[in-house]
Amino acid sequence: MPPLADCPFFRFIIPNMENQIRLPVAFSNVVRDNMSNPVEVITTNGQSWSISWVVDEEHPHQIVFAGGWRAFYEHYHLRIGDSMLLSYHQPKFFYVAIHDIRYCKINYGSLPAIPAHGNYTVQFFAIIPVNDPDTLKLPLRFSREYGWSLPRPLTLTTPTGHRHRVGWNMQPNGRIVLHGGWDGVRARYGLRDQWLVLFRYHALQNTMYVMFFNGHTMEINYWAHAGPGTDSTCITDPSAPRSRHIADGFRTTNPFFVIPIMHRLANRFLPNVPPLPGVCEDSPITITNERGAWTVRFTHYVGRTNGCFGIGWSALATACQLRHGHVCVFERLAPQEYRLHIY
């Protein structure tokens, strides 16, 4: 069985089962030989649940969450038709976001939300309709609460940093409908009827992040659809004027992110590294430039959005003579390979 190269996302709908839940076959086939038992399921408000699993006797290729699942089910008052978005970080951790039957993320109560994958304002799903390739309707609740501030056209940003401008209008009942440009997004990523689109809206940045899930409820491979010559943009939103100016002027067809050297210990480690597509926490990545190549460990702290470059960074910083005031652009060449540009 090939090892997992990414931290895969998948989504399933809560069936009429309080005592156990079956994970997708496509996911189970890849992870069942190496996944810890029990696993830790962590919600986006920081709560952690230990859940054991077994392999279904009637369906030997399917993992079933069993011990501890009922307590999780009852604590969050899950209902038939609710859905869960899970991100697996091998071999033990699952990060989960729960959505109600309206495809909007639930209110976890008084605990503060600590998103594991981005500081977004609101998160919701939409199902691609049958025989309607040109439009996509967003949930009524989101439309009514955020439609007044939504930019037009709307820019959809994928996990790889590619951006797509899509028009929208509002129906008489207040529901937002995506139209001009949505057909191009569907064609670009090979999206089919009844597939799922996860939206994460960042109100402060007026930015909409999207993820696509296929008929097996697994996140698609975006790189399989990245055609040559497609413009890519910064996957972060630099706040410092010089960093923003550099990001706006950087030209590449690859995703990239920008980090200024400001921390007094930046020659030992680099903080505020964003989540890297296809890279799990505590994973080595290769960083190259004209001075050489280095293996650096990326650490993504549980419960925080960003991580850091740790082991190996000091050697890179010394060789490249990094100092306060420099701005680093990291250009993604492959899931675990980046090219460093220094300004």
UniProtKB/TrEMBL annotation:
Entry annotated with the keyword Transcription: yes
Alphabetized InterPro entries for the sequence: B3_DNA-bd, DNA-bd_pseudobarrel_sf, Plant_B3_domain
GO MF annotations in UniProt: DNA binding
Domain of life: Eukaryota
GO cellular component entries: nucleus
Principal place of residence: nucleus
Location in the cell: Nucleus
Ranges of residues in domain TF-B3: 6-102
This protein's UniProt keywords: DNA-binding, Nucleus, Transcription, Transcription regulation
PANTHER family: B3 DOMAIN-CONTAINING, B3 DOMAIN-CONTAINING TRANSCRIPTION FACTOR VRN1
UniProt protein name: TF-B3 domain-containing protein
Source organism of this protein record: Arachis hypogaea
